[in-house]
Write a structure and sequence with these properties.
The chain is built from 18 helices and no strands. The protein is mainly alpha-helical and 475 residues long.
Length: 475
Amino acid sequence: MLFNSFEFLVFLPIVFLLYWFAFKKLRAQNLFVVVASYLFYGWWDWRFLILIAFTTLCSYVSGILLERQEGHRHIQRLISIANIVLNLTILGIFKYFNFFSENLQHLFQWFGFELDWVTLDILLPVGISFYTFQALSYTIDIYRHKMKPTHDIVAFFAFISFFPQLVAGPIERATNLLPQFESQRTFDYTAAVDGMRQILWGLFKKIVVADTCAVAVNQIFANYQTLDSLNLVWGAFLFTFQIYGDFSGYSDIAIGTAKLFGINLLQNFNFPYFSRDIAEFWRRWHISLTTWFRDYIYIPLGGSRCSKWKSFRNTMIIFLVSGLWHGANWTFICWGAFHALLFLPLLLMGRNRKYKDIVAENKYLPSLKELGQIISTFILVMIGWVIFRAENIKEAYQYIIYMFTKWQPSSLEYGVKCIQYIAILIIIEWINRRKMHGLEINIKYPIIRWGIYCAIFYYIFYYSNDIQTFIYFQF
């Protein structure tokens, strides 16, 4: 079920009304959340429900077993490893089996061996990477004594399957989300209103910005060999905003929807295209995934508090794993390596944590230096998105080369109208860059406030006929 679909438009108010008025007791609310979430997730394919239920049950049981083996650290380690291996094996089979099988076949062919390799004709479950990582963090945090396991199986199933963030995040930690399902919730009108505003802004970013850019991006990438540099740069620029509008739009809708149910999800995007270097970009982009890798891989490897060589190694590992997490394609791995190479000089000079404040703090506009930093960082990120978007390494290489070598007098052929919506996005988010989302506004006069809402509603309705699926559903 898509957030930007008619089905969800019917689903959400029904679930909201039943949640607050028919199921007032905590356990009944949680059970209803599980049922509604499984309906939401099973809307794509009911077979997906078997997998998520199995993953959830295994993680719940592992938590109970870890508690029972308190004081027996060796046994606890085995339990944790078993659950981690089980979850990663399931993820690997569905997401990476064919990738590694085909690449091994090519490797043997390179050495002159012709072997028949098995590939699986299976459908990738929507959002499997997201809920798998969420389940893994629960087991790891219990093993590290950062939390105690829950004995409320209904609350745990609600934590893993909570429908707003189930298929594309944010990747929630059990330390944040699970206690909210174990405590009585009350309706907060102010939070609900802010949630509606955040949903509205998310729909604008998805339907008006991302989906209109998607049409032009698809045309440009499909014909990149025949287009000149101006149009190729334009295509990369549009995809940069397509993927941001698509993914951050989903996160806004998810976080806003959760507020309607008295649940607070973590911020997942913090206006990343206003970053002054790559390190700051990664502190602001897909925050829930970045911090997951930091806490569960980077820091256990030693982080940056070790020798320079090990710091470089850890950084490269984290970016390569991040690339592989996004999909079974060498383009994603190269995209991760590209960002690692951009990050390493900052780490070497000790500048990877330089920018932790808000750009142009207490000012309306950035300084010329800040503007130059923002633009240069944006260009590097944009080049990286070309690698991410390309079908294969050859296409990524050719596209980037043509961006710089096929300059000639020309005009833009696709998606010129997108610039006005991108401009609206940039202006509103720049004004509200200190806020949690673009429409967290406090305008005194209701006529102005509602005028903004109505204008956004108009744009959303106008472009609602050309609905595109969310990019990150494939991950």
